[in-house]
């Protein structure tokens, strides 16, 4: 009897008896909603998945980072059980868990849970130098990219506009391009300014300043002061000077935190594995993008987190003695 035939007979017999053959284990797949591929959220998702997937053989979890429309979209998809995890702005995490702002009609998302926060994000206005824009108020009457529906940047801009008593009719053109499209639109003079809530340095902003000599506009004044006083999820920030060509000085604005959230439907064991993998490889994580360079554990487990901590995250933080 040939060897190959003998092996086949042994395998078939073993399968029939249910012994001696290792059955393949189905890997658990998790998907993290991010935002545009041009933004830092996508880099956050990629960094998390890179760390998790490096040890898939040990824990059986496969991670994917998905480009999406941004914070609002991610929160809606998590609520609808169409996505397990998402990266969202801290202000929209607050509104989702409290059923306010954009989420007033839907009501509070009682299943939303926080894992940790990441980098700070500045409300960033980038303008063409020939547009005559020196402050946020100078955007009136101009062609402005206000961001795609479903993005956190669009929603945060609308909050500031409402505080000023504006709607999009104050602009001569209110374009709705995504983050990956807006820089070239600025350079081609389709718009004179673009608004972006993002961590710095950022590739889309760098493209705008490098290709069309754009600059970053300060966002300050009494209305901004009032927003910060009334809303604890906002904070004063600066876009650092010298990180973009032709922008040597820090620019004052306000901002939020990028946060990683999930639903209670994500199992505690998987949430535990994710946060453990990130924090036990934090030095590696911080090298994945310049915006992550100054991350500190003490800040990541509390800053910008309005939703209750996920049971899996809480378990890990208590094991470490951080909470």
UniProtKB/TrEMBL annotation:
It comes from the Bacteria. Pfam families: NMT1_3. PANTHER family: SLL1037 PROTEIN (PTHR42941:SF1). This is TAXI family TRAP transporter solute-binding subunit. It comes from Candidatus Competibacter phosphatis. The lineage of its organism: Bacteria, Pseudomonadati, Pseudomonadota, Gammaproteobacteria, Candidatus Competibacteraceae.
């Amino acid at each position: 009897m040939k060897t190959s035939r003998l092996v086949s007979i042994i395998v078939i017999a073993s399968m029939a008896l249910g012994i001696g053959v290792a059955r393949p284990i189905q890997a658990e797949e998790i998907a993290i909603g991010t935002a545009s591929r041009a933004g830092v959220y996508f880099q956050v998702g990629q960094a998390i998945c890179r760390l998790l997937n490096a040890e898939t053989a040990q824990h059986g979890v496969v991670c994917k980072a998905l480009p999406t429309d941004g914070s609002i979209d991610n929160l809606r998809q998590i609520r609808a059980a169409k996505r397990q995890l998402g990266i969202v702005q801290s202000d929209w995490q607050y509104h989702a868990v409290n059923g306010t702002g954009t989420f007033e009609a839907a009501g509070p998302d009682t299943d939303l849970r926080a894992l940790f926060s990441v980098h700070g994000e500045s409300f960033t206005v980038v303008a063409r130098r020939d547009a005559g824009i020196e402050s946020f108020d100078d955007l009136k009457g101009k062609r402005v990219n206000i961001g795609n529906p479903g993005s956190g940047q669009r929603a945060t801009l609308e909050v500031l506009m409402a505080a000023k008593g504006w709607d999009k009719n104050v602009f001569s053109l209110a374009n709705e391009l995504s983050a990956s499209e807006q820089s070239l639109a600025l350079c081609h003079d389709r718009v004179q300014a673009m608004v972006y809530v993002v961590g710095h340095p950022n590739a889309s902003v760098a493209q705008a300043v490098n290709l069309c000599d754009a600059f970053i506009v300060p966002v300050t004044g009494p209305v901004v002061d009032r927003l910060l006083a009334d809303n604890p999820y906002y904070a004063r920030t600066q876009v650092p000077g010298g990180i973009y060509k032709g922008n040597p000085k820090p620019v004052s604005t306000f901002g939020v935190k990028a946060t990683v959230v999930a639903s209670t439907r994500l199992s505690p064991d998987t949430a535990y594995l994710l946060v453990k993998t990130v924090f036990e490889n934090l030095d590696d994580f911080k090298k994945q993008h310049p915006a992550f360079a100054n991350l500190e554990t003490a800040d990541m487990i509390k800053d910008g987190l309005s939703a209750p901590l996920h049971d899996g995250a809480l378990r890990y933080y208590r094991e470490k003695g951080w909470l």
